[in-house]
Design goal:
This protein is an all-alpha fold. It contains 14 helices and no strands. Helix 5 packs antiparallel against helix 6 and helix 10 runs parallel beside helix 14.
Length: 297
């Protein structure tokens, strides 16, 4: 009679061990064909170190960017180097410098939106930096350089003025504040030119009220621009056309007082005289008050 096998307390352990060995052998068998296909040893590939990323010194990357920008005129290549500094060494002083140089290189490339984005980021991260004034100036000139023709919407011009005024407000003693003031005058002249263009259009259509409203903006807001002489002469013409003689006289008188040698004054003077009156300033007129406010009356 066959003696029944006794149950061993170690049997489950050996069963599990056997299953694990079978699984391991299966993995090895499956891995063998991969090695034969030229993919290399599976285990070497699994534990291999990733060599695709190579950390480079921040100053080296920065100087390479400067070389590409200044010597090779490769702005896009330079920007990549500066961005790499920020990526690999985000908290270094080189990263701060590289961010500003990225903004500058973008400006030089005519990529104004990218310049504005980088410059604003610089101001946000480093408001106390000595170069923050320059970053703010880059924002301003990026908008200024996009000022459109007077026949188009002047929203960009208004943005440029606001950014230039920010340079003056935040950094009044910087070298950029002086340049910003000059550019503001140029931008304001553009806005005045836009009003004059529309005003002339209304004059051609004999819509004198619409024309007056446009010339009034030039006289009350842009007295220091080159368009103000013509605006006063056009106001003289428009007011005479609708019979508001006192305002026509005032416009001609203010024009003569401030620009006596202007050809526009000669036209305005002759126009008023043709109506049987002389140029005469009404101190209560908005025209007179606008010039008194700026010390031009």
């Amino acid at each position: 009679m066959t003696t029944p096998l006794r149950h061993s307390p170690k049997r489950p352990f050996f069963d599990r061990l056997g299953r694990q060995l079978c699984f391991a052998m299966g993995v090895i068998v499956l891995a063998a064909p991969l090695g034969g296909c030229g993919t290399g040893n599976l285990w070497d590939k699994f534990f291999a170190k990733d060599e695709t990323f190579v950390d480079q010194p921040a100053d080296k990357l920065y100087n390479e960017g400067l070389f590409l920008l200044n010597e090779k005129n490769d702005r896009k290549g330079a920007i990549k180097k500066f961005e790499e500094v920020d990526r690999q060494h985000p908290y270094s002083d080189w990263a701060r410098k590289s961010l500003l140089m990225s903004a500058y290189a973008s400006y030089q490339s005519g990529d104004y939106d990218e310049c504005i984005a980088n410059a604003n980021r610089y101001i946000s991260l480093h408001p106390g930096s000595p170069d923050a004034a320059y970053a703010q100036y880059l924002v301003a000139v990026s908008n200024y350089d996009q000022i459109p023709d007077v026949s188009r919407d002047q929203g960009r011009t208004e943005k440029a003025i606001a950014a230039l005024e920010e340079v003056i407000r935040k950094y009044p003693n910087s070298e950029y504040a002086t340049t910003a003031k000059k550019k503001i005058e140029g931008a304001r002249d553009q806005l005045a030119g836009r009003e004059m263009t529309i005003g002339r259009y209304y004059m051609d259509k004999r819509d004198y009220t619409g024309a007056i409203n446009r010339f009034k903006v030039v006289v009350t807001q842009y007295q220091t621009t080159r368009h103000v002489e013509e605006a006063l002469a056009r106001l003289t013409e428009a007011y005479m056309a609708i019979g508001v003689v006192s305002e026509a006289q005032t416009a001609a008188a203010v024009l003569g007082h401030n620009f006596p040698d202007s050809r526009w004054y000669k036209d305005a003077y002759n126009l008023v005289k043709s109506g049987g009156v002389e140029p005469q300033e009404n101190k209560g007129s908005y025209i007179s008050k606008a010039f008194k406010k700026f010390g031009l009356g």
